Amino acid sequence: MVVRGGLDARVVWTKPSYGGLVGAALGYFAALTPSLLPRALPFLIVVTAIGVVAGYAAGSAIEWFARTIARLDAWYPNKKVTTVSLVVTWGLALVFTPIAVAWQKTQQEALNMPQAVPGSLALAVSAILLGAVLVLIGRCIRAVTRLVGTLVGRIGPLHRWVEASWERIRWIRLAVSLVFVVLLFAGLNAGFSWLTGVYNTTNSDASGQFASNLGVNSGSDASPLPWETLGREGRYYVSNTMSAASIAEITARPAEQPIRLYVGMEQADSFDGRAALAVDELDRVDAWSREYLVIFGVTGTGWVDPDAINALEVVTGGDVTTVATQYSAVPSWIGFIIDSQTTINQNRATIDAVVERWKQLPKDQRPTLVLFGESLGSMGTQGAWTADATPEEVTEDIKSIIWIGPPAESTLWKSWQADRTSGPAWDPVIGDGQITRVLVQTEDPDRDDDTRLPVIVFAAHANDPVVYWRPDLFYREADWTIPPHGPGVMSSLRWFPFITGFQVGMDLISGGAPPEVGHNYSADMAPAVVLGVANPEWNPGDTVRLQEALPDFRYETG
């Protein structure tokens, strides 16, 4: 029936569909199944409500298809059957609630996280009510699109076409709905563009930051790269270089003053241009005379993890120059969605340029090259090689590589993990295990004294969703979901179509993980750097002192 005026209230307030209610119960159940990380109280309620809404939408769509397209009304269950089935499905879902709450508490306790889980009744009521509100909002949007479709059919050139058959109004409403979806995605794209502009402005703002104790670092009087163009994270990075005295206090050995170099994204318009500036800076400070040269892959904002760079400077005894190149100013999750290729292009250009200049030196005068990448920086630096590269090929020139929390789609992590020699997916043995090692826990005493080079170190928590979530998790079982599970992962976790992809996807945005949990690698930084740099003068006592000292040298980046 064509709406003659105003919104059709029946669209909003019509009784829930049978298929939708069954689907909502299943969605509620699915949202409470085990995932990689426990959830804070508000987030748990929101995720459960999303499960209710998603289940309701899927169930309603299936019912509509069965009755409208497949014309299965003859097999549609009677009122008695629908009532009983609804009672059973929702009864089972609600009975499952205290089990899920107990899982959350157990997981939080095992990971030393603050326990904040609601009672079963509070969780069920809150999630269902929020789900109902979201369904009503969706119905309101549908009512608006129907009204717009109706008005479009009543005016203009489509009027006579619709009058010939009022059934044609359905096609107009469908077209309006599709236009709405297109506009929604256009709005999201515009939102990302706006956010990019905001972060670019923040990146250029040097207020509240001071160029102190820079020495020969980038942005100093000795550098041709102006302080104001280093970018927000670059300025914090070069201004917080560890002193030789601080390093010596930790190691109880003489130390040198490390050098930090940084190329901001505003300092050149191309990937190769920034890479060339990085090499120029290395030449300016004679970085080639140092024992170590670290190429640092930054995150989306240009951030350099203070624990990582401080650990690198301490483990190398300060006899090191570190160079980083910024390619964007947006957070990593935005950069990953918008254009994950940018980080790969910039890191490939920087690595190639530095290695090419390094090869021009006599072999006995070359510093040891170290490559470091964390999170999106890990993905970007791995992109300097193709997926079929072997560990031997990767370490042909760069002898020490440290990759922290590599995203699941990272080129080498993905291919090497799939082609592992042995071991589970969360602790794979890659090749013969002589070059590539995976640090699953912060303490691995069997490897503390390993000073072999070359070496590639992966630090990857078994419960880090960034490391294990991929789009195909919705429809394909992943190796890491097969028991036995890694540290911090619930033994009850299993793979289910769509459900596991949804749950781990929600883990990506849960946030607030303590050290050694999820995508937080602050506690792993010291052992990972120690294993990766493989300084023969280093000893386990140094590692303990380094771990204790690192929090005192962290700097805030606003």
What does this molecule look like?
The chain is of the alpha/beta class and 558 residues long. The chain has two domains: 189 residues, no CATH class; 272 residues, Rossmann fold (3-Layer(aba) Sandwich), CATH 3.40.50.1820. The chain has 20 helices and seven strands. A seven-stranded parallel beta sheet has the order 1-3-2-4-5-7-6, with helices on both faces. Strand 2, helix 11 and strand 3 form a beta-alpha-beta unit. It is globular. The N and C termini lie far apart (57 Å). The N terminus is likely disordered.
Number of domains: 2
- The termini sit apart by 57 Å
Estimated radius of gyration: 28 Å
The averaged pLDDT comes out at: 85
The name of the CATH topology of the largest domain is Rossmann fold
Under the CATH scheme, the architecture of the largest domain is 3-Layer(aba) Sandwich
Classified in CATH, the superfamily of the largest domain is Alpha/Beta hydrolase fold, catalytic domain
Q: Mind telling me the CATH class of the largest domain?
A: Alpha Beta
What is the H/E order? HHHHHHHHHEHEHEHHEHHEHEEHHHH
Please tag this protein with its features:
558 residues, 2 domains, Rossmann fold, globular
Helix-strand layout with pairing:
Layout: H1 9-13, H2 18-31, H3 41-69, H4 79-110, H5 120-154, H6 159-164, H7 169-204, H8 232-239, H9 244-251, E1 259-263, H10 271-284, E2 292-297, H11 306-315, E3 320-325, H12 332-339, H13 341-359, E4 368-374, H14 376-382, H15 391-394, E5 400-404, H16 411-418, E6 436-439, E7 455-459, H17 465-468, H18 499-508, H19 525-533, H20 540-549
Helix pairs in contact: 2-3, 2-4, 3-5, 4-5, 5-7, 10-13, 11-19, 13-14
